[in-house]
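Form 7-S
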Amino acid sequence: MRIGRREVKITNPDKVFFPDRGLTKGDLVRHYLDVAPCLLHHVRRRPMQMKRYPNGVEGEFFYQKRVPVPHPDWLETVHIKFPSGRTADFPVANEAAALAWIVNLGCIDLHTWASRVDDVERPDYLLIDLDPSEGNPWRHVRKIALVVKEVTDELGLASFPKTSGATGLHILAPIKAELGFPEVRRFAKALAQEVERRIGDQEIATTTWKVADRRGVFVDYGQNARDRTIASAYSIRPTPDARASAPLRWEEVPKVDPAAFTLQTMGKRIGKVGDLTKGMWRRRVALASRFETLELEPADPKRLDNRRWHNALEPWV
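Output:
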């Protein structure tokens, strides 16, 4: 397949990846090429962790951090060293051909870091992740999201909601890459606690860290960490209906149904509303000056994430 100046081999394009919808690997590749003008600014210059489904959504999957060898010489990679002493060369998708090459490996969704290769220690967005556990209704997620917007507005942070594409809602606030992950996480925690305070009902919203003690929807600030990734905007998720992570207008949030956004509907959606995240990275603001508003100790720009990197659920390949 010719994509711009690149030639990318797509293997087994007719393999069914989503049996319930009859969608193939080729359909998935075409989706990413179609949405590339909207998607690339989210993943460009970010380390990407690959989650591979060689046999589609109903097959087994595995995580892969190291870019396969051999790989195209035009594919950018970034060498990252972890406190554990391990290292990995992550792929970086800077162009549409890179998206197709990565998806051809069986990657259904695109998982990227919150930082870019210029400075992997400092994220350029803050994330609040609302993911309801069993028994928590979706209406609570929508209610909490609107309070997150209220707080971010008061803090002078632009905020961009999107469906996670699975069961939750992501709210991203672009920030200047000036603080390390621990400080961004500290700010996000205080923000989440303020949201929890304003909701005032633990059955609806909670920041309780211990899962067994939670009742309401977890206002998750913990994703603001060096070793965490999220599915990018416009990613297709490994769900039976090929659900998409769809950017939203804030006025859509009170009634949004995540099931409305799929591989089969996103083209029409984009044709109607365009890229709702266009220009969001031009709205980055400094976070350090806002710590006092949340009654936090001043930010420390020199504090970086020095935890030992380990995630038992994501074995190295």
